[in-house]
Amino acid sequence: MSQMLFSHDTELTLRAACVLINSGTDGEQLPDLPALDAYLDGFGWTGRRDHDGAELDSVHRLRTRLAKIWAVAGDEEKAVDQVNALLSDTKAAPWLTRHKEMPEWHLHLASVHDPLWQRMGAEMAMALADLIRIGELRRLKVCAASDCDAVLIDLSRNRSGKFCDTGNCGNRQHVAAYRERRAKSD
User: Whole-prediction pTM value?
Assistant: First the structure.
C-alpha cells in the first residue's frame, strides 16, 4: 500500500495517531490500562509507563487534540497552529537513536522518562510536521463512508485512499455499489 513517502518511524507514528483517534470514534476502545498497554505494545512505544488512571486520561486528552488536527486538516494555517502548540506543549527536543529491534536511525523527541502523553504527543506532532513540510496535509482524511467518522492517513501514491481500516468501510461501500449496479442491470 505505502510507497515510503516518509521515513518508517514517521509512517508508523502517523498510523499510531490514526488508531489512537479511532479508538474513540465508535465507542471507547481504550477504556482501561490493559487496552492502553495493548495499543502501546502494538506500536512499539518505549519508555516510562505509570500504569495509572491519570496516564490513561492524559492519553485520552492527547487523542482529542489529535482529532482536532485531523478536523482542521483542510485549513493549513489552523493545522500548523495546532501542531506547533502540541510541539511546544510537549517540549519536543529531537535526537537520533536506534534500538536492537529497530536498527534504522529514527528520531526520539522526548526523554524516555517524560510522561507517556508527552512522548507520544511530541512524536505525533513531529510526524504531522513532516507531512505539513512537504505539502501533504491533504493525506489526513476522514473516512468517506457515510456512517463512519474514523480518520485515516492516506499513504497511497496518488492520494486516492478514502476509507478507514476500522470498520471494513471500503469493502462495504464496494459491495453496496456492486449491488446497486447489478440491480440497475436486472
Answer: 0.87
